Amino acid sequence: MGFGALRAIPMDKEMTVSIKKVGVIGSGQMGNGIAHVAALAGFDVVLNDVSDDRLKNAMATINGNLSRQVAKKIITEDARKQALDRIASASSLDGLADCDLVIETAVEREEVKRKIFHDVCAVLKPEAIVATNTSSISITRLAASTDRPEKFIGIHFMNPVPQMELVELIRGIATDDDTFDTAKEFVAKLGKQVAVSEDFPAFIVNRILLPMINEAIYTLYEGVGNVEAIDAAMKLGAHHPMGPLELADFIGLDTCLSIMQVLHEGLADSKYRPCPLLVKYVEAGWLGRKTQRGFYDYRGDKPVPTR
Ligand code: NAD
Question: N or C: which terminus of the chain carries fewer CB neighbours within 10 A?
Fold first, then answer.
């Protein structure tokens, strides 16, 4: 038997999936954004979280964000209603059984993600694609915790998802071409641009962005400037739309710390050492906007610097 005969086995064809239904695991700021854009693009969406309150909040946030888009005439009222109708919520992973693609976007902790992949793969059909929205963790390592490393891929959205144009696609060592092409097509249907990144810690955007944010926190820690001065400096002096500390609060300080730890451990270079002040804020539970306090205090009418 020649190689031609081996290639004739129609395995790949049978295993090809066309994406109609998308599962989103984790309904935080990224999960609700991904559900929002996928539903607007016409996909059926099932949104999952361990917390029912989080799920309720996420549906309210999506509705609020869609309404804002209607008010700004970005979408029609009809599109808002149809998008909302396409999103179902599920408090158990069983609700994701008939999804063609699931995107995990729970907290940036490897053990949490590994457990999710182990559990969700048990209910998914074999041809379903499994993706992660991780900001930094190795796609190859996460893929190894699934039963389908060849159908596993990094689809990394930017925050806020409805506004940001870019999505990074990251193949693990085993990701097959079909999975990559299907993911690329999915991203195009969402109206977003792809940047392909190799599977190295934090990929492209965060490899560049997070050390800049960490350096801004060192600048604060060493007393070179206060919160207001540092953010004003980068907004007015480098034309960044947000200051780095404001941006850190927006991303979430726990996520920022996790990404710096992945860079530090993964690249074994002391230049990625997370600033002790960032560690202290996370230990205090001051995680930025999502907990109402970070480098700014958001509990009043307008944000007040905490340093
Ligand atoms: P978040 O804290 O807003 O939301 C995380 C959600 O995951 C919470 O609702 C939590 O209840 C849920 N969750 C935790 N464990 C779960 C489980 N076992 N099953 C289902 N849900 C679970 O965090 P986020 O900012 O939305 O980040 C989520 C992921 O997206 C992280 O991997 C992060 O690195 C990545 N990401 C974040 C940003 C950003 O700017 N925040 C940008 C790109 C990617």
Answer: N
